[in-house]
Amino acid sequence: MLYTHATIITVDQTRRVISDGALLVHDDKIVDVGKTTELTTKYPEEAQYDLSNHIVMPGMVSTHMHCVQSILRGIAEDRDLISWMCDRIWVAQGNITPPEAYAAARLSMAEMLKGGTTCFIESLWAERYGFDGLVKAVDESGIRGCLGKVVMDRRADQPEFRNRMHHGLVEDRQSLANAVQMHDKWHGSSDGRVQVWFGARTPGGVTTELLTEMSSIAREKGIRITMHCLEEKADRDVFDQDFKKGPMQYCEEIGLLGDRTVLIHMVWLEDDDIHRLATTRTHIAHCPSSNMKLGSGFCPVPKLLDNNVNVGIGCDGAPCSNTLDLFQEMSLAAKLQKGLHLNPKLLPAETMIEMATIKGAEAVGLVDKIGSLEIGKQADFIGIKVENLHQVPTYDPVSTVVHATNARDVKLVVVNGKVTVENGQLTTMDEAEVIREGIKAGKAVLSRANLADDIHGSWPLE
Known about the structure:
The chain is of the alpha/beta class. Helix content is 37%, strand content 21%.
């Protein structure tokens, strides 16, 4: 198929933006990229897909996601992280059954695809949710999934709030063997769209012995790792007070750091931490909406980038960001740093596009396959129709994407050469059914967790 007459943001090595551009796709690969006049002349027999008045760019990569949490959207508003987690989210998640987790995963993937996210990292898929159902949802939806199977045990002297984890989520050392088993069973399935990762629990709540063993197995088998770290000040206190060493010193010494690891949030960093991240080429998942809404703090993104640390961007779970809209995250991340540092030149739109595409691709280990629109790469791209009041006039397509576009503006999504969204509608899933089953699953979970009567706004509802 020859996709024609689009403004193409390639994110290739020269960062070309092609006006009236075209993209030739054969099977799952990009075969050619250039001007429409050139490619239509060169390939006169190819069927054409007209994308006039569209901006085409690489599919976006969300470097942090909790797929199961979409059915819990809005159940823990205006709470600090510990209350949010211990009193609401963990309680609900500890009552989720595999069919409900599958419904939640489908809801998450449908929302991500419709908003232009073509690849994501799931960070902590618990044993109780049923890993096979998560893989099934990826397979059916057509998205790319880097699926972190939870690895955890419990440290005897862990922070007190971690003892409040709902019993339904507590796992032991067997979780590591189970994660390896899921990797051996599913990694590379669904035409290569499924990756299986280790989803490590946060240091402080997990024993050093387990994290060390996991890191060793990860190196031996080439399994990638994602892990929450330094999301709030209490996380840093664990390293300072319990381990008597800096956070990244601890992580480096036990083998956690490296170019196959994505650390999530990383708000409470100091200079030594940033130096170790840079020298080990460890990746960061920045989640601005989540960090701001939960009052966690501000990730030092400009300083990380200045030190050549690779930073991707993520939405986190629906209860802490409320939407899985990476356009919102890009714009917020840029504006946050500009205002925080009183410097409007920080994080220009071009940098935000890179974080959502090529830097995300690097974080998931697929930079040779996705993240830019270049000959030989996988055909993962999105088409944004520029037709709304909030988008026009469009003088700079890069700025329009970052600061004047939202998930609802995406009209075309192609993953691995296959159309998953066309004219703004899912082609791989029945959206009405996904919504219906997601609502049903959420209500069942809240009822079982005895939370249904507690979830309401502060204003009276008649």
